Amino acid sequence: MENQEIQNQEPKTFFQSTTAKMIMVGFLTLVLLIPLFFVQDLITERSQRKNEVTREVSNLWGSDIQFYGPILKIPYTSYDNYNVTDTKTGATTIQKKATTNYAYFFPNELTNSSKVMKNESLKRGIFNPIVFTANMNFKGNFTSPDFAKLNIAPENILWDKASIIVKTTNLKSIKSELKVEVNSQKLSFEPQNNDKTDYSLLSTSVFDYKSLATNDKINFNFNIVYNGSNSLKFIPIGKVTNVAIDSDWQSPSFEGTFASNDTTKSISAKGFHADWKVLDINRTFSQQYSNVLPDLDDYLFGVKLIETVDEYQQNERVSKYGFLVIGLTFLIFFLIQSISKINIHIFQYSMIGIALIMFYTLLISITEHSSFSLAYGISGIAVVALITLYSVSILKNKKFPMFIATSLSVLYAFIFVIIQMEDYALLAGSIGLFFILAAVMYFSRKIDWSK
Questions:
Q1: Strands (E), 58-125
Q2: How does residue 408 score in pLDDT terms, banded at 50, 70 and 90?
Q3: Residue 424: predicted pLDDT
C-alpha cells in the first residue's frame, strides 16, 4: 500500500505538465495561421478575378459617364497684321490676314433630370457585375452671347455659323438617337474629331443664331440614353445649374465639389433621389471663352454607385477573426481537459484546428453561388456539427460537447453580427472580447496551474 501511494505521488515529467501542454497548443495555434493565410490569399485572388470580370464587362457595356455641355459655339473672324516688303522697291506695306476662331458660351439655365436603373443581366460564369442604364434629359437656354467681354468686334461675328456642342465620356455606349430641339428647330448631334482628351465631342450642324433666337434667346431640349457603370457626373456650366437623379440603386456615394441638397435627398432599400443646385457664384470660371474650352474636371459632381461591402470583403473580414476563433476554441478544449482530467492528444487538437480552417473555404465557395448570410449559416452549422461529433468521441460524454457546440455557435454568431456593423463594429467587438475574457477567468479560477 505504501509503495502504491509513493508511486501515485511520483512527479510528472515536463512534457506531461500543464505548462508543456499549453506551449504545444499555443505552437499549434501559430502553425494553423499558415493555412489561414492561404485562405486569405484565396479570397484576394477570387476578389481580383471578380474585379477583372467587372472591368471587362464595363469596357464592353459602358464606363463612367462625365458630361460637359451643352455649349454654344459661334465663330468669328480675327485679323493679324504683318509686314510685306517689296523686293524690287524695298517698300514695306502692312497687310491683314483673316483667321477664323471660335467663341464658346455656357448656358444661362441648365436643368438635368436623370433616371439611373441598374442592370444585373450581364452574368459571366459565377460573377454578375452590376451596371446601369441612364436616361438623361437636358433643357435650358442661352441668352445674349457677350462678345464684348472677349474683346470681339460685332462686325467680325459669324452669326449664321453657330452650333451647339457637347463633350462627354463613354461615347460608344450612347443608345439613343441624338437630336436637340433648339426653339422650333430640331438639329442632330454628330461626332467630331477627338481632341486628344478623355472627352469625345458631339456637335450639331450650323444654324443662324439671329434668325433662330427669340428676343436674343434660344431654348434647348434633348435626351440621351447611356449604358454606364460606376459613376455619373456633371460639370455645372449653367449660370444656374439644376441636376436631379433618381435611381433604384441602394448604396450611392455622392461625390465631387458640390454637395447634394440635404432637405430633398433620400436613400432607401428601393433606391435614392438626390438633387443639386449650383450658381455661377459658387464656382470660379466665367460663362464665355475664346479659342479653347477650359478643363473643368475639378468642378465635377454627381454620384458613384457602389457596393458597400461585397461578398469578398465580408469573407476577408471574417477571416481576420480566424486567429481569435482558433485560439478560443483551443482554450475551451484546454480548460475542459484541465478541469475533467481527460487527456486530449495534440493530433486531436490538429483535427479540430483544420476543421475550423475549413469553415473559411466552405464560406467563400458557397458565397460565390448564394448570399453571404446563407453561406455563413451553412458553413457555421457544418463546422460546429463536425467538431461537436468529434468532441463526443474525445470527451466520452455529452455534457462537454454540448458546451463546446454552444460556445462555438455563440462565437460565430458574434462574429457575424460584428461584420454586419459599420459604425459600431469596434465597440461591439471590444465589449464581446471583454465578456469572453471574463468567462475564461471565471472558469479557470480553480485550476491548479502549478502541476
A1: 65-85, 92-105, 109-119
A2: confident
A3: 66
Residue 140 to residue 60: CA distance in whole angstroms: 32
More confident residue, 160 or 129: 160
180 forms beta bridges with 187, 222
Task: Specify the residue for cell string 442661352.
Answer: 142
- The torsion region of residue 402 among left (phi > 0), alpha (psi -120 to 50) and beta comes to alpha
Distance CA 296, CA 300 (A): 7
With vertex at residue 338, the alpha carbon angle to CA 333 and CA 344, rounded to the nearest 5 degrees, is: 50
> What is the pLDDT averaged over residues 306-328?
77
Distance CA 289, CA 361 (A): 60
Low-confidence winner among 142-146, 232-236, 244-248, 391-395 (lowest mean pLDDT): 391-395
d(CA 280, CA 144): 16
| Cell 468521441, located at residue | 393
Three-state SS string over 288-345 comes to EEECCCCCCHHHCEEEEECCCCCHHHHHHHHHCCHHHHHHHHHHHHHHHHHHHCCCCC
Rounded distance between C-alpha atoms, residue 191 and residue 150, angstroms: 27
Q: Phi-psi region for residue 62, left (φ > 0), alpha (ψ -120 to 50) or beta?
A: left
Q: What's the one-letter identity of residue 132? A: F
Contact yes or no for 143/106 (Cβ under 8 A) = no
CB atoms within 10 A of CB 222: 21
